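Schema walk-through. Below, the input block comes first and the output block second. Nothing else is stored per chain. Lengths vary across the set, and this one has 150 residues.
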Amino acid sequence: MKHTEEPADFVLVGCVKRKLAVPALARDIYASPLWRFRREYAEQCAVPWFILSAKHGLLDPDTYIEPYDLALADLPSAERREWSHRVLDQFRDVTDVVAGKTIEVHAGKMYVEYGLERELSQAGANIRRPLAQIPGIGSQIAWYKTHLES
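--- output ---
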């Protein structure tokens, strides 16, 4: 992993629309090129990582789940804010301390801009979004290719 910054304490990775048609571990159910790079990056960071799932909220990659068809974009703004609160509560359940933690987020703006980033920051976390200014899936995949070990 090529890092110029201090490593994150946690990595949060946004889910993708394309999924397997059968139940599987969360880490395996998502099936797109972007997902494969996000997952590989998160695994190479060698810190706890979680999936931001429109249906499940904060999802442990080793949780066995059924396929689903729900995107945050399908939800009204109020439900996206509720989702953000739920994710924050779930995150607090997996870590005793949020303050002072660096959380790297690899997800579209829909996943962070309805309260999640603000609330994590207000709880004292340092949020990094390395792909926030990189538009398009192809450009994001290129970023991962330059940041992954061969």
